[in-house]
Design brief:
Elements: H1 7-15, E1 21-22, H2 25-31, H3 41-54, E2 59-62, H4 71-81, E3 88-91, H5 105-122, E4 127-131, H6 142-155, E5 159-161, H7 168-178, E6 183-186, H8 194-200, E7 204-206, H9 210-229, H10 241-245
Parallel strand pairs: 1-2, 2-3, 3-4, 4-5, 5-6, 6-7
Length: 250
Amino acid sequence: MPNPWDIGSARALAGLGFKALATTSAGFAWSIGRRDNGVSLEDVLDHLRAMAGAVDVPLNADFEGGFAIEPEGVAANVARAVATGIAGISIEDSNGNAADPLFELSLAVERIRAARRAIDASNTGVLLTGRSEGFIVGRPDLASTMARLAAYAEAGADCLYAPGIKSMTDVTAIIKAVAPKPVNVLVHMPFATVAQLADAGVRRISVGGALARVAWSGFLEAAQEIATSGTFERFGGMRPRTEIEALFVS
């Protein structure tokens, strides 16, 4: 379930045969000149409508922390998000406070419960993913992460996700901790293959902002070459225009 950041990248990935896609908060933010977590709720809702309407495959929404702290706010915002045409939505437990970066567990659980109620009330069947962010906000505690994910599963999350896990041992431990509910694994560096993760019992793989970073890396390398040396050598590896445009419908 790779992560496009705009309509073109979404249609390209669907055209390559991927059966589901997911948005990326970072990739979208960069595409409009913002930092990750620097976009507004209205920006994201407009983005979700555009992305869901651009492809025929299911789209999971990276909905960050629900754009609210209190459960009631999360519920209200999730209700608006599920009306955009998405097939899934994720809610994080990070709060942006560097000193204490995760919501207290009881509040985090209530936020998932609130999202669950909003989805059930909508009758959309949108799949809810509960995310625990400890491994990417400086709190890489496996036992705590597993406890949080198990609590989110009990609160109604359909799928569980701990971005930042890079050990197959940790992956299998999380799968056991939340079984029988499925686990999403983020791959943003080459620590495992699709086949290895599938064999371990992973049900869903996403890549977060990695594809957007690859695209930005190529762009910056070519642009910096022009700016610093006045040469165009990096243009030599470009895909043919016809190959790119074959991915899109006129």
